Each structure stands twice: as C-alpha cells, then as structure tokens.
Amino acid sequence: MIINSLPKEGTQYPDIQVLNQTTVSTTSMYYNAASILGCQTTIIINIPLNSTFGPVIKFKVIATNASTFSIVSTTPLFTNQTFGAYKIDGKTFELGSFSISLNGIYANNKTEKITPIALTCDDAPALSDLGIILPSEPIPISRYGEYLFEVPVKVPSLAESNSIELSFALALGSSPFKVFYEQISTNFFILRFKLSDPSLITFQDLIEITPQNLNSYINPTNYTSFKIYPNVNVSSENQFSNINFYPDYNGETTPEYFGYVIFDILNDDRAIVPGVTNNLLNLDTSEMLDFSVAFPVGYNGTHSQFMGIIQPGRKASFTWYLASTDNQDIADTRFSPKRNTMVTPTSTTVQALTNCRIALIGIGAESFEYTMPTTYKFSTNNGDFHEYIPYWSVDSFYTITNITSMSHEMILPKDYYDPSFPMYASILNYDDTVNIQVPQPLIAPTDGRTPPTVQDLELISPTGLLSGFYILRFKVLSNVSKFHHLDINGKKVYAINIVSGGMDENSIGYYEITVNYTFVKSMSNSYTITSCGIFLNCETKYYFPQLLNPFPSLQLPQNNLVTVYDISYINFKYNNLNTTESQKNNIIYLKINGLSGSSDAETIQFKLDILNSYLPFSWNSSVSMFQCNFKIPGNYYSGSVGYSVILGGNTYSYPSVFIATGSNSTLSVTSLKSDMLPPLISYIEAYPSINVYLDPYNSTLNIFGWDLEIEEGVNGFDHGEVNITSVYDKVGFTFKFNSSDLIDGYIIQIRINHTEMVCFDQGYSITSVYLVDKQGYETSRSSQYESVSALFKVAASDQLFIYVQCSDDNNSEYNSTNPDTTVPFISSFILESGFNQIAVDFGSSASNKTVIATLVIEDSESGLSSRHHPTIYLQDVFGTLMAISNGNGMTVIGDTGYSRTYSCVITIPFGFGYPAGASIAIYGLVDKFMNTRGYTHYSLLYDIGGGGNPLSPYISTTYTLAPSIVNMVPTFESDYKSAQFIIYGSFLGLVSSDIRLTVDYISESHSSEETQLPVNTITIRSLLSTTTESVPFTISSIFGNYIAISVDLQNAISRQIQIQLSVGGQPSNAYNFLLPSEVIDPTSTSGTSSISTTSTITPQTTTGGSVTSATGTSTDGSTGTTPTTTTTTATTSTTTTTSGTTTSSTTTSTTGTSGPDCSKLSNCGGPSQGNCVADNTCSCINSWIGSDCTSKPLEGVTINVNPNSPSASLNQDDGSGFKLSSLINLYQIREINSVTNKILYQYDLQDKWVPVKQSSPKPNTFIYSNTLPNAKTSIIYATIAIYEQQSTFEFAGEQYSINPNSIKFTINITNYKVDNVLNNLELIMQAQLNSSQTDDICSKKEIVKGSISDQLSVQLNNKSLYCRFLNSALLDGTTAVNNLTHVNLNSEFQALVKPNSGQYYYGIVLPTFNDYLILDPDFSLLLQSSTISNDDEGICSSSSSKKFPTGAIVGIVVGGVAFVVVIGIVVSTLLFRRHRFSSVTMKLRSWNSKRRSKSKSYNLKNF
After folding, report:
1. What is the pLDDT of residue 192?
2. pLDDT for residue 429 is more than 50
3. Cα(815)–Cα(800) distance, rounded to whole angstroms?
4. Cα(789)–Cα(800) distance, integer angstroms
5. Is residue 549 exposed (0-12), middle (13-18) or buried (19+ Cβ within 10 Å)?
6. Ordered strands of the 22-33 beta sheet
7. Are 1120 and 846 spatial neighbours (Cβ–Cβ below 8 Å)?
8. Are the C-beta atoms of residues 1414 and 1370 closer than 8 Å to each other?
C-alpha cells in the first residue's frame, strides 16, 4: 500500500509500509577521526508516488535506525506528480559494503519505510605522492592585487572516487606568506598567496607546500610536498626615501576613509614588496589586522614612486608604519579615519490599503551633522540598490531644526504574508548596515498558500534569425496561489513572460525567457529555482542535472571543465612595447583545447590588473584562435604587465598563465618616465577666507569659493569636476573644467555667487573632486571607495569648509533670525482624463498606457526654489524604479514663484508592475530656505488636498491573456528589396499551427482606420513559404514571444505596412510600421536602413482605428484621447485634446512674435533665399544652403571614406594654393550616471571596426560594425553614404534635404542596456576643419539650436564645415523621439582652437531603448556669403586685425547636479544594480573572488 495523502486524525494504521525507491547516486569520502573510521556519505534517491490515490505529499524528514549510518541533513530537491527526490547527507561508521534502512516521516509524524539502500565505504587510497609537478623557474608576482601571486595545481593521482579532501599547508617554520586555496574540481586547485610579514622575506626564497587529507581529522595524512619559487626579493631601508603619510594627523578625525603613504624606491627590481601596516593582530587568525602591499605608480628617471593604501579595520586612531623587509618601522604616523554614526531606523509598519499593502520604513530625527543623508539602500531577496539620489526617501527636512526624517515604502500584494520573501530596507554608511524586517500581519491567512510548481523545463536552440540565443520554456502549475514570478540562477521569469495557458489557481502556464550560451553552460553543474505566488509565497528547489534530471524535456550540454592548463597556445601580437607618451594597441591570441567558435568565445574574457574593464574575446576563423583587442595606457610602469584571463567562469592571473604556458605569456613594456597615478589636489585655499560675511547691499562682493592646486605627472591633466554642497543644499553646484581652464597650468578657481537661495548662516564644503589625466587614470568620486581620493593630501586642511554668515537685513523677509518654518507641499495631483487611478491592462489595446497628469506644488512663505524640482517615482514589488523628472516626462507649464504647475507624461512600459501593481511616490519639493518635503504612497493617498479628483498613488496592472505584438525589429538588405523582421510579442502560444499571421500594405493616402484592405491569413505550420496577397514573407522561427520572418519587398506598393496575428482564433493588436523610402523609391539616396513609425499625433478624438503609442501603432475599437507633445528649441509646448476641446500652454524665451522666429539666422537670408519654417529652422530655396540660407555649395570637393572604420574626409583645392581638409568620425560612446556625472563605461570608437560585406553592394555606401567590450555585448553599426548631388532623404517619418558633396552617417546602436535608470548613454562625434593657409586667416565656431536639428559650423574665413545633428532618433523600429539632447563637449575634450583650424566634439544624449536606436547626422562643406569680419568673435592669425582673445576661462557653475532620468524601463532587468565598472577606473586595490556552482560544495579556505 502506498500512502499519498495525509491521514485523518484518529485513523488506525497497519504496519509501516515500504516505498520502493530508485537510488540515483551515492558518494562516500573516507575519514579517520580519533580511531573511528568511516565515510562522509551523500545519497540522492527518487521515491515514486502514485498520483492516482491523491495529491503528492512530501516527507517532512527522513530518518534511520541503522547503527552504521547517521543522517546529518535531508534536503528535498523537488517533487512532481510522478516522484519526489531527496538529498541525504550522513556518516557511516564502518568500512566495507552493507545496506541501511530509511524511514520517511510525514508532517503528522506518520512514517513509511523506504527500501534498503546499499552503501560502500572504502579505505583511503594508499598514496604518498600525489604527482604534483610545477616548474622550477621563478613565478612572477603582481603588486596590484589582493594576492601577490597564485599557482594552479593539478593533482594527477586523484580521481572523483577517491576519499580524499585535500588541503594545502605551508611547511613548518615562519613564512612571510599565507596560503589560500580554491578547489575547482576534485583534482584541480588554485593556490593564492598573500604577503603577511615582509620582514621574513629572504633572497629568492622558496616556499614548500604540503598537501594534506583533511578527512584524517586527528592526524592529517601528509603527502609528498612540492616547492614553488616566487620572484620575491629583499628590500632594504636605504632604498626608501621621501616618505609621506596622508592624511596628516592634526588631532582631528579626517574626512578620508583610507590612509595613504607615498614614497620613493631606489633600484626597484620588480620583486621587492614593501607594505603598510599598523602592527595590530587579528585575535582570531593571528594575522595583521590591517596590511597592504604598496605598488609602483611612477618613475622619474632615477627613482620609482610607490603608493600604499590602507583600509583601517577599526574606528579609533592608531599608529601605522611603512614596512620593508629588514625594518618594519621606517616611519610612522597617526591616522584618525572618518567614521559616521548613522541613525537607526526607528519604525517599520505595514498599512493595509484597498488594493495593496504598503510597508513603511521610518527613520527618526538626525543630529545637525547628518542633516541630509545622500546614501540610502533598499533591498529585497531579489536584489538591492543604493545610489546618490538627491532627496529620494527624504520625507521632510526643516532647516531651522536641522532635523531630517526619512521614509521609504515597498509595495506588497494585498494579502502579503510569508517570511520566505524577506523585504527590508537599510541605511548604509561605511560602518554599519541596519536591516529591518518588514513585519507580517498579526493574523495568518486561512487560505492555502502553496507556491507554484515548475513541472517541466525545456531548452530550445533556435535557428535562423534567432540563432544567437537560447530559449528556456517553463511549465508551471499555479497550485493554490496565482503565479507571480520565478528565479533561476538569479535570472527572473516574470508573469508577463507567459506564452500560453493561465496563471490562476490550479492553472498550468508556459513562460519563456531568452538566455545566452554562458548561462546555459552554467546550468550544467547545478541550478536553483525559486517559484513565488501572488502573495510572494516562495519555495526554493535545487537541481543537479548530472546526477538527476527531473525534467523530461530538459537536455543540457555537458559542461566539461576547462582550466588554464587547457591553453595550448598564447601569444601577444606586440611585445616589449615602449609606452612613453603614448598608449599602445595590442591583441592577445589563445588556442584552448576543447573550445572553438564564437559561442565558446563568449565564455572567455581578458582584464588588465590596473583597469576594471573585462574585455571579451572573439573567434578569429582565419587563424582558428580566440583573440582580444586591448590597450595599454601610455607611460606604463616598466616591466611585466599584470593581467587575468577569465576562462570557464574562473579567473586566472598572469602567474597562473605563466606556470601553465611558459614565457610566451609574459607581456613586457618599457617607459622612460612612468605615471600611473591620477591627478591630485596638492594645496587648497578658501577664497576670500574660511569665514565669509555676505553684504546685503552689494551682491558683486558676495563671491566665495576655493583655489585648488592640481598635481599631475608626465601624463598631463585632462579634465575634472568639483561638486560643492552646503549644510542644507544637497543638490549643490557642479563645476566642470579641463586643462585650458587652469591658471598657470595647475590652479583651478571655484567661485560661487550667492544668488536665489534665501541667505542664512550655513557652511559650504567640497563634497567631491574628480580628476582625470590624459591616459585615463582617474580619482574616485568619493573617499568611501577603495581607489585614490583626489583630496587625501589636503584632507587635514582647515580650508575645506567655508562658513557663510548673512545679515538679517538681507532684502528678504526670511533669514536666520526669522526662518521659514514650513515645508512646501503638493496642492493638486490629478489626471487630465478626470479619472483618479491609472489602470493598465497589458493585454488590451484599449488600455491607456500613457497618461497625462497635472502636478501643482506650493510654498506659502519663502517661495519655491527654482533650482530644485520634484521627481515622481514609480516602483514595483521588485524594487524597479521609474523616475519622471523635469525635462524627462515633466514640464513646467506655470510658475509664480510660490506656486508651480507641472505637466507630467507617465508612460507605463509593457509589463511594468504586473501582476501586483505599482506605487507612486514624489520626493524633492524644496523651497528657497531649503526646507524639503517628500510624499510616500501613503502620504499621497491621504495628504493631498485641492480641487479635482486626486490621483490614486496605486497603479493597477492586469493582463487579459491575449496575443500582443509589442515591438518589431527589422534588418534590411542593402538594396531594400528584402528584409528580416523579428516580431516581439507576448502570449503567442506553443503550437505554431494555431498562429495565423498577416502582413499587409496600407494605402499612404488614407489613414489606417479608413482603409479596409484585403487580408490573406496564412496558416504557418502548413504553409511555411507562402505569401499574403499583400506582402510575401517566409517564416524563419516562431516561439511564444518571438516570430522571425523574411519579407519580400520587391513589389512594394506602400511604405506603410500592418502586422497582425491571431492565436487559436484570438486576434492580437494591429501593429503599424513605416518602411524606409528606399523600399518604394530605388533612386532615393538616403544611404540608411532607417525605419520609422508615425511619431507626431495630430490632436484628435479617436473613435476607432489607430492610436500610436510608445511601442508602435495599435488598432482597436476604443474611444479615447490622443495627447500631443511637441518640443522645439527655446519653446516647450504641450497640447492636449479632451472631448474635442484643445488646451495649450507654452513656456518660451521668444515673446512678441506670432510665428516662428529666425532672427538669429538672418531671417533665412530673406524671402529669395529661404523661409522660416520653425524657430531657428530655415528651409532654403534657389540653391542657397546652410543653417541660415546664406551659403553656397563649395566647388572642387573630394570625399574620401576610410574603408576600415567609419571616418571620412571632405577636402577642397580651389587652385589658390591653399588646401582645405576636414575629418569626421565617431569618437566615443559612454554611459554616465546623470546624477553624479560619473563616467561608468567609456568605449573608444576610433578602432575595432569591421567592414560589413554587403550582399548587394550599393554605390557610395560603406557599412561597418563594432562590438563593444565588457559585459554589454552591444554592437554598433555605422553606415556612411556619399551624396554627390542635391538630394532628399527621410528619417523618423520626416523628409530632409541634403547638400551636394555631403556625407551622412547612420548609426545603429543595438542591445545596449544601461545599468541604472538614472544613467545616460552618450554618443560623441568629432569634426575638424583645417586649412593650409597660415596668414590672414580667422576661425570661428558656431552652434545654432533649431526645433528640428542642431547645426554646427566650423568656419575658416569664408569656408565652413557644416554639421547637422537631427533632434530625432528611432527607437526599436517603432518609436520616433524628436527631442534629443545635444551636448557641446569642446571644453571637456580640449577641442582645437587655432586661426587655421577648428574642431568640434559633440555629444548626443540617447534615450533608453530596448533593442536598437538609430541616428542620422550629416556633414558638408559650404562657401559662406561673407568672410569672418573684424567684428566677429573669431580666432585670427597674427597678421590679421583680429587677435586671439585674452583671459582665462574659469569653471562654470551648473546649478544642481544634472538630474536627467530616462523613463524607459526594460521590465526583465532590475535597473538598480550595484555594478560600477569604468574602462578607465584605476581601482588599484581590489580582487574579487568569484564563487561558482560546482557539483561539490567547495569553499575558499586558509591554513
């Protein structure tokens, strides 16, 4: 009899029954403890369960009565309708073969007997020598990492069946090193060595290592030792000189978290290892508490300069030393590190609301010193984030009391009750993180909370267009609880990923996600799945597919271990490089046994020790090797270059590669003078003093700030940034500068003119200084990060803080004596629709996913600060944030000084907040007295007054399970006669024969709702290569969320197409798409594969038909309102239509005109030359061209395009003897934190391009591709098209004319995912114009910002290079944005300024996109109607009457840290992640140990 359900109380039972089980595997490992012999044993068993008799019930525990076996732990692995699997860990107490009996115990303590299991416990193998052989030559060391060197150890005599748990110990006696080891497999280890006591180093000392069997507990079995020879030498005290400790001790706690020492070394042989220590011991490990190896940072021709950084392990001040090998006390100093004491959260409550539960974390009053926290961390078991976000979570701040209260809310499902999903908030500072668990409701729910169960898992390898990734398909039973999400090895599967079935109670649903090759290989050893229901009730299960595969549909590739010893060939393209004054490009080549091809290349990375960039390898089929391109910074320290190779998930440093492959792994460089230290502030002086008294009657005297002296080596200073905040203003001021702004080449002046803020006594301080040299070495932006702080040399100075005092007679009603005691408030927050809640159904075309709200804030006393604007935050259960801020979804449409009105466009991305909903919070209301207010979800619900119907702070999200087309990404052939479409959707089903797809042309002369074209529906399964009557297409691949088709466009009759599908007769939305003009007009010479949809919507009330949204055009039968937002330069307009009534509000800097204003453009040259069509936008006629229609095409222009990279030159020789030449290229792409302005990633776009072979080459068109390094895996495509004649082209649905003899770039950036919603992606282009004329010549640069484009010109006399940057971009093939932000970067990149040469660096701030984004700038040479006159602000040669202007450019104050937030969210990505790599960051003291999934549990140990 097999029992399958829990017996009722009082039921009588027969004897214990027997469950027949399958023993999947048993593993045993011998041990010897105090003369007790036995084995550590692991058993994995399957227990069949007959579901005919009832539901599957799991055992609570498994027990045994056997005297020869003791159970240590039992882990349920998984249970389905067929069987349950359990992992049993225990100990046997005798050697030999025998059987044991087990009992399964149910939750009600009833038991069932399990069939006996046979075990074998063998004695330890009789081994004395493990066969370890290592080379005898010296092992190179790395002075830049946490570990000095490492050794990969193969143990040939060990096999998986051996009962040995191996460890490694240093031979008896004192050693300067400590050894740590990581076990990669049974017989492969990595030994890593730390320097612990330099005084014990002897000349060319060898290290003897003894392997031990840890299973012999009392007397460990020792095996034959082996020796290694690290290249470490003795240093002596007389080599050290010029020793300086920082910060200088002055009896006070410094603002620095780290201590620094800089000193010189004579005759560095690359083997000495000086260190820094405080000589304090860790009582647990007997190690030095704080010890760090110093590392070389420069060479001046005679001496090497070293730096040591120490992170104190205790808060109090202490004495610390520079340690050499023969004297530990060369010099000493005192150091009192900064240690803040942050306030502890004081309350944690849960509010039960109508639609959800809100967990509120409250933080109480803070002291004066910590008035405004800038670092706040929010965590769940799904991830965490902590970012500098001004005022985020600040509930209120009162200037007069210096008290801040903070609160943060987490949205929870209405009936949330389960401790398995821990949600908590943290206040994070350098010392302490305090976690507060969200309290559960007092009464547990009475309904069932069984989490969903994964019943099957399938790995699908697509072919054709989708062959670049894998699909994981999950079959999930929702049991009692509706499906919410699941997690597999850290990757989320959301409810919105459903492709078929259902997710309600007792429903089976199918969900799909895409994964890459590396992820699939990581599953081969083990994986973990956590499945969660709608109440966040979760269950975690562990799977070991090599031992037992519970899913019949899952077939994983074998993950054979590849180690550094599998590298059969290594070589660097260039060696013995001289890096003096210039960086060097290089390539590393690898051959690896068992690996080949592009898929395996994804598993290999390369990293230089001094940089934090992980660079990918690619497969070079011509030489059948892997290769990685990298750069060595200029002025690199002479010697061997330290690097690491990441292979199969394991990191191998240069010493390991050297041991495994030999001397070919050594990369050597030389430099006459080395500089690897970033610029530093060596002196600071407050201006005019540290105490400033502001004059209320003479504002010109109210200027204060600092003079900073910058110290930099041979690399030269490049650019920097200084951030200033006050006690009350945490947004503060930002100063950016470059080398041309320095006075005398090394002094930067920071000046603040006290303006709008109401004057009251407070202190101003330098919050951070960020400096970068010309080789990219940079300081940290905060002293809290373990890299070089720019301020450590002046950290003890009393000049860092300026106290500003104000007179009570300050022309203001409010001051320090008569303070503003109230905080600003929200008086109104309403939807224009008149509804009071945002409700989104992602499965309904009629659901409005974009809404417009009006927000009104007020301050009744000092008035609202004009430099501060609130931010609206949308947050879901996972902690994903959407931020709507001023200029990014929020626009000021009215401002009286005391009341300000914002129009807010809130767009809900597909799937955001589903199914639990999302919350709304608003933070950052600030008045002129710096009083601050924020509104949590709960506050918005109960504290908003005013008229109208206040907006509910809860966003309701539902999903009527219907097929949806979310996006479509096209790829066109060069002749535009065919294309490949990848259609992204949701709920597209599992059976392709159920899907019917139509692709039709729509007449361009009529709107889509007026046209009823014939639709021919195709059944895909039976007709895989058939056409509709309108658009012929062929199916390539079809899955639950993707369909890939090849489309024949040879006989296209319209540029507008409509895609629609149905699944099992259920129709999807109709997706409208606009093809490029080349599809219809083959003579069009736009040279671009640009595509677009309608991006501007005419104000109208729709009564059915098309409504264009952020993801395309949807057709439905709904009645709704279509908003229109149009952005122009100098004018911001918002026009909306509601019920036939149009309202418009405009904020403009151009007043008194009834039409567009082109007065800045000479009124377009007059009516005979051009027409003003929009503000600062001309349409030229009668062969006139240029931004102001006063130019003519330049004759004699030749165009040369680089065949290897996207750069081009326009040259002109008019026979005068003077030649004109220009160069245009893609310069950089970088990801920037828009709050801190820190560059997180920076990619050089001047090399690494690969020409793309065109199947049907198009004349005068050149295509290139570039794969970005790091983990971004983004590919950039660049197309250059030459226009010899006056032409037109179309981009983003608009027609543009282009001048003759011009070039146009089309840049397509694919698959770039920013790390954080607050990050911006910025593309930088470079343009330069040169003349061979040196006398009587002037140059001038000009920017004209128009409503359609930004137009730049570099003019030399009467000739100019004209650059047009359209304000439009195409996102994901469906969305056109018309308000791109362009940034003049001439100052940052030190653009060339000479009389006969002009240069531009121009940045394009890119909006967030999912799959790809397309830009379309163009360039041409023009003949101006007049030369640069004496009255123009030009740069002229000495023979000209116009001289070079004198006077230095000082840093410009930017009011407030730029707070640019991109609204777009990729739902499947948690946007706030702790991932701060930078390709030029010199994080000099870090080594990150990576833990991997193994078939056995191995840990990093030390002995």
Report:
1. 93
2. no
3. 25
4. 14
5. middle
6. 22-33, 36-48, 83-92, 69-79
7. yes
8. yes
